[in-house]
Structure formats: C-alpha cells, structure tokens
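INFO batch 0412 | record 1 of 1 | parsing
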Amino acid sequence: MQRLREKVERERLLITDLPDLSVQILEHLRDHGRITIGEAMTMTGASRNTLKLH
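INFO prediction complete | emitting tokens
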C-alpha cells in the first residue's frame, strides 16, 4: 500500500511539471490505454509536429 502511495505521489509531482498538452495526452492514455496522432490532433487542436514533441 505504501509503495502505491509513493508511486501515485511521484506521478502527481511529474504531471505538475509537464505542459498542459502533455497532461491532456497522458490523461487520454490513462483512460483509453493508447492514442494515435490523429486522435491527439482532434482532441487538442495541436499540429502533428507539436504533438510529436509532447
């Protein structure tokens, strides 16, 4: 249980340092298990090149 708490806390800290676009992508991944560039483009409105950076 303690290891899980530590893992969740590390993830929370890492997410707070990420740009909003990266957080959106990670949240989608967490909910759906995968994401395509096309889905990310539709979801965020960002360009393909911008998404590749994130």
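INFO post-check: The two ends are 31 Å apart (CA to CA).
INFO record closed
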